[in-house]
Amino acid sequence: MSDVIIVGGGISGVCAAWEMARAGLDVRLFEAGSLAAMASGRTQGGVRQSGRDPAELPLARAAVRRWQSLAAELGEDVEYRQGGNLRVARSDDEVPRIQAMVNEQRALGLELEYLDDRADLRALAPWLSEEVRAASFCPTDGQANPVRAVNAFARAAGSAGATIDLQEPVRAVHFEDGRVRGVVTRHGLVEAPWVVLAAGIHTPELLAPLGLHFPLEIHHVAVLQTVPVPHRMDQVFGTAAGDGSGRQQVDGRLRVTSGVQPWFLAGGSWSDDDVLPAAGTVAAVVERASRVIRDFDRVPLARVWGGLIDKTPDALPVLDAPRAVPGLVVAAGFSGHGFALGPVTGEILRDLCLGEEPDFDLAPFRLSRFNSAMASHDLELLG
Asked: Which pTM value belongs to this model?
């Protein structure tokens, strides 16, 4: 019997495994495919605070502090670079969105600069196209290599004593005598008094038999990667409308994404071919990226892929130990911006499993916010 079973080998799962294992817990992680197989491996890889919901900002700020020391902690280079983040306005209509975000987040204490002078913009980022009218700039934001990071956390967790089972899907959470008792795999029951569900888009199907409603929406994102080009970009960028982002990787390749888009394929499993973006989507991403990155449309593409995003109705994650199901912890619904939070998510999940009070206010992230009956139940238990 393990102390904790974690379901999901993305950034949240492996960070939790690492934090718990080095806290002395016997941890076992089950991943249905390979590490970083879905959202965590297909993300942009931005490590940002700017543009966050106010409820999420304290987690993001703490996470950025952790990212600065992770190479030393993990003993590996995860290609974390703190070159800043630009949120750009490509038209006069988008400028007020940037101004409002800067005012709001400055009031919350985030170091953020507003730039609307084109000379200043080009001095900071010569790669910007002439269409960019204004931008916010957060110098403490950055980027990392998502696949390298997930695998580095997993190796660190293994070195600390965690067991990681790949290609081992979990079929159900076992609930008996009023609390969680483990999970069911193809080999039968694996026992543990705590189960952490960090299974992304598959989380609702594991929660439903426990009577927990999780209204997760599945969205799609397209990612384009170019051939290596000479260094030109220090900053990561995102658009005011949220319909694109980009950065230059350490290896010189430019990496740009679409915004999240509806996903229409029904069923519980998908192949890499299923999530490939359509030709029209690729063309739209190139067009939008070219409005931000000077001469982007002249750079040859090397790879195109897609990923699925576990999006909640309010775009905030669930980080919760629902009182209705003792022994269960949920970490899902990061809505496309959970990669940066990984180190702090791991700390929170560790504390929840140890019965300790996390350092953050988790009220905005409770699962019960989506279900009035659950919310009433929690209030009754709180007395």
From this structure: 0.93
Of 277, 292, 311, the residue that ends a domain is 311
pLDDT at residue 382, rounded to an integer: 35
For residue 78, give Cα distances in angstroms to 72, 75, 152, 178, 188: 10, 9, 7, 42, 36
Domain that holds residue 376: 4-45+147-215+314-382
SS3 (DSSP) at 73: helix
CB 308 within 8 A of CB 266: no
CA–CA separation, 263 and 219 (whole Å): 5
Mean pLDDT for the stretch of residues 129-142: 97
pLDDT digits (tens, 9 = 90+) for 168-219: 999 999 999 999 999 999 999 999 999 999 999 999 999 999 999 999 999 9
By the 8 A CB rule, do 55 and 34 touch?
no
Is the CB of residue 275 less than 8 Å from the CB of residue 305?
yes
In the block, residue with structure tokens 């159900």: 172
Number of H helices, E strands in the chain: 11, 20
Are 160 and 297 found together in one domain?
no
Q: Do residue 247 and residue 299 come from a single domain?
A: yes
* Cα 314-318-324 angle, rounded to 5 deg: 120
Q: How many CB atoms lie within 10 A of CB 124?
A: 17
Q: Is residue 48 within 8 Å of residue 65, measured between CB atoms?
A: no
What's the pLDDT at 383? 34
Contacts of residue 327, defined as CB under 8 A and 6 or more positions apart, other chains included, come to 179, 180, 181, 193, 194, 195
Return d(Cα 317, Cα 202) in angstroms, integer.
14
Farthest-apart Cα atoms in the chain, separation: 67
Q: Which residues contact 225 (CB under 8 A, 6 or more apart)?
A: 249, 253, 254, 255, 301, 302, 303, 304
Three-state secondary-structure class, residue 304: strand
Closest CA to 358 of 46, 59, 34, 55: 59
